[in-house]
Write a structure and sequence with these properties.
8 helices, 6-stranded antiparallel β-sheet, DNA-binding, alpha+beta, 227 residues, two-stranded antiparallel sheet, homodimer
DNA sequence: AATAAGTATTAGGCAACCCTAACTATAAAA
DNA sequence: TTTTATAGTTAGGGTTGCCTAATACTTATT
């Protein structure tokens, strides 16, 4: 439970690095992510870099060191394991898990996290479809891609979402799209990029491009053009 | 997760009040309990009393207000529910539960604590035999008494321990005394107050007065003199 | 009553985190 | 190129939570 702030900074930096690939991570980006002001970030960066968790300069931005990355991955690991546990063992739904996990991720008791990981059967993905790194910090491989990059005829399985907001997750539940559901792509409207899906019950579901950009899928059609 | 320090102060004060009944709670006692120095306590007391969680003056010592007591009981409730959960659902033993619970007790997600309490079947006692207050803050009744106040012939069931230290709990396990075990009292040595117990397998276990002072029991012999 | 011992308090400091205000680069736009 | 934003930085502040040193009380003990 010590160093909750360190945890949060390192996690935020890690996330930023991975979301905006190739772009560099700046103090202002971190400030926005953590809902604080840039000077606070600057100050903390000094402390974190003094402890060799990262380096920072204007040219290359903030770069996590090996140790810094390990800590961040560990926080993410704990977060996702808890989310999975809350979902599978305590009946929390898609949109409820995040908040509780946000606190639980800071509990550093190793035996505890090992135990619930084991009880869950060493899962590779959390209830949002996000990969759970193993104890060595290695993420599982998967051929996930954005729904919006799929083609007519793709046989899809929903493997994850990019946005975790309550409203988004609730919307998905409402239109009957849930993790591990299977769909085929019926039609893609050129005009606005919206997609018509067909589910197992032969019902049709219409999805806007905006939504399709936030859903991760795996295409199970052999040799599909989409890959 | 906010106000972890407030939680810890209020919990410490509550515990002190209840352990040293009738005695008044002083700043130095709190400092010792929390492993900090008296001036830190004095300072915090100002803040807590400004927020009406307690009152303090030299004559009556530190006295929790209704709200203060509620918060303390809630922390204790969360702690004991987690301990029970770790023990029953995650296979932690007697001496392992405390440390993890010390962090988990600060996670304030109500749905989470309600859920695990429910999954456990609304238990009334934790793995150390300590009572778990219900959601309204009411502790369950029980006729527990110290083993050291028992008499020859008592038919006892172990319902709790007063000390939670690792070494103590490990010792009890080693000499084969565990929660809910049943014993009868075979002999009491006047000279040093040590007690000879007989277990269900007719094995004898010798216990010093010091140990007997830290074990809570319930006597199941009808109309026993010990009450 | 005088000394010793321990408790309560005040004063003054330090570190962690966060903030606003103000200044400096830097990059985009006019 | 000059203006205008925007991002980065520094300076200076506030709060919380903890500390040491010094002082003021109390309470035993001699």
């Amino acid at each position: 439970m010590n160093n909750i702030t360190d945890d949060n900074y390192l996690k935020a930096i890690y996330h930023l690095k991975n979301s905006e690939k190739n772009k560099l991570v700046t103090p202002t980006m971190v400030a926005n992510e953590l809902l604080i002001k840039p000077p606070s970030v600057l100050e903390k960066l000094k402390s974190l870099s003094a402890r060799k968790y990262l380096t920072y300069n204007k040219e290359s931005g903030i770069i996590l060191s090996k140790t810094g990355k390990e800590i961040a991955i560990n926080v993410i690991r704990r977060h996702r394991i808890w989310e999975t546990y809350l979902h599978k063992h305590l009946g929390f739904n898609w949109s409820e898990v995040h908040e509780a996990a946000e606190d639980l991720e800071h509990v550093r008791n190793e035996k505890l996290i090992d135990k619930i990981y084991e009880v869950l059967g060493n899962p590779e993905f959390d209830p949002h479809g996000d990969p759970i790194p193993n104890k060595q910090g290695v993420f599982p491989k998967s051929e996930r891609k954005l729904l919006s990059t799929s083609l007519v005829g793709c046989k899809l399985i929903i493997v994850g979402v990019i946005e975790h907001s309550d409203s988004f997750l609730k919307y998905l539940s409402e239109i009957n799209i849930n993790l591990n559901d299977k769909f085929s792509i019926q039609k893609i409207i050129e005009y606005d990029g919206s997609i018509q899906l067909k589910n197992k019950k032969n019902e049709f579901i219409q999805i806007s491009k905006l939504i399709a950009d936030k859903i991760m899928v795996r295409c199970e059609k052999v040799n599909c053009e989409c890959k």
